[in-house]
Amino acid sequence: MTTSVTILPSGTYEGTVSLGPLDLPIGVTTVSVSIDRTNWTGPSTTMSVANEWSPDGGETWRPFGAVLIPGGVLKDQQGAILAQSKVTFQVPQPDLAGRQLRATATVVGSIQISISASLD
User: Fold this and answer.
1) Model pTM?
2) Which of 1, 49, 57, 112 is most enclosed, with most CB atoms within 10 A?
């Protein structure tokens, strides 16, 4: 069953933003994160996100990938404007209780966005 959660409500953000932690129910193997970039038109504004995961309810944290998201209006191969940036990743140990994810986003400039996730 897919569960949708809001990670960051719609607003204007700049600098360092903490995201989470997000509890991962037993059985979740995939997390898809979507960033609404409808109002993110400035090409010089970027956002980098460093992810971490915890197998033990937040006692310890381990690096879990990173991404740099470019600013400006992005288009797909057919030239249609992309309203979202999306990244999907597999999370380890689906049978383990107490797993969590968190991230630190660093925004260069100022952007108006929201971030949501689907847990599968």
Assistant:
1) 0.90
2) 49
At 76, which amino acid appears?
D
Segment 51-88, tens digit of pLDDT: 999 999 999 999 999 999 999 999 999 999 999 999 99
For residue 25, is the peptide bond before it cis, meaning its omega torsion is within 30 degrees of 0? no
CA distance 51 to 105: 9
Q: Hey, what domains does the chain have and what are their CATH numbers? A: 3-119 (2.60.120)
Question: Which pLDDT value is given to residue 59?
Answer: 97
